[in-house]
Amino acid sequence: xxxxxxxxxxxxxxxxxxxxxxxxxxxxxxxxxxxxxxxxxxxxxxxxxxxxxxxxxxxxxxxxxxxxxxxxxxxxxxxxxxxxxxx
Length: 87
Hints:
Blueprint: E1 2-8, E2 13-17, E3 41-47, H1 50-53, H2 57-63, E4 64-70, E5 76-82
Antiparallel strand pairs: 1-2, 1-3, 4-5
């Protein structure tokens, strides 16, 4: 499942959003939105396993980080990583 994830410079998850499919003519909710990062934050669209995406958002924030790896000056690779909260 695609998820938009906003992170700080250390890769800690600050917020998330899940775009949903909207049927034609559905007026219940907006079909277009954008997360805007504050200074020191970045937004990424990431493929997240369904069981993680459907879990409690607080658990996602506490137990996962985005690992951000520079590829080139303009390109980055991101990977959702479990981070043991006990460490």
